[in-house]
């Protein structure tokens, strides 16, 4: 399949180092709002995109593969005239980041891999979720999604934000969500991780029920030469939103490391 033109929002100085942000299955680029101002203040050019099938990006008919999601980001960089960028990805965005580090090392200055996995099974879970979404729409998986994304305490303290993300998931086109489930179902990057040469920071949420740190983040950090693992307490799957100060500090430290 050929690359699609991703919807994107660009903030920050035109001549700043480019940091591309890719989000979770079921999200759109607003999930990165807490990171924008702090990075722009430090002089970075922040490029947030909606993955294919999500937000305001095109929704080509499935199946999608991780190759397609990665090729979309390379096309975005080409279109923006960016030769080399930092990539920060959470969950599906992190999977895309690993694909870029493996298949396009010359385009990736560094990687931050948040709350993600190199192999996220069982495949039957993704087949079943795609079936549900195609039959009943994304609203049918929205509440369960929010429960994985945010800790119970945060949802209690911030019912408005839980509602914001429930609405975000329910707005994702069913075919786009389901086709991305298929890409995750068929993904296995574990044996390819040693090919990544980009300086890599892996960040996990200590209370992430979707990609628990020991099961998912640690194998990534152990597989990528020189990668470092940080586990943030009090964070579920959407840790960058629930614990923005901690995630943003770690991201900035990685981007600005000497
Ligand atoms: O299951 C979820 O919704 C969490 C998740 C897995 C991959 C992804 O991008 O989000």
UniProtKB/TrEMBL annotation:
Pfam family, one: Abhydrolase_1
GO molecular function, one term: 3-oxoadipate enol-lactonase activity
Keyword Nucleotide-binding set for record: no
Top-rank taxon, per record: Bacteria
EC number: 3.1.1.24
Keyword NADP: no
Domain AB hydrolase-1: 17-244
Keywords for this protein: Hydrolase
Coiled coil: none
InterPro entries per record: AB_hydrolase, AB_hydrolase_1, AB_hydrolase_fold, Fimbrial_membr_usher_CS, PcaD/CatD
Identification of the protein by name: 3-oxoadipate enol-lactonase
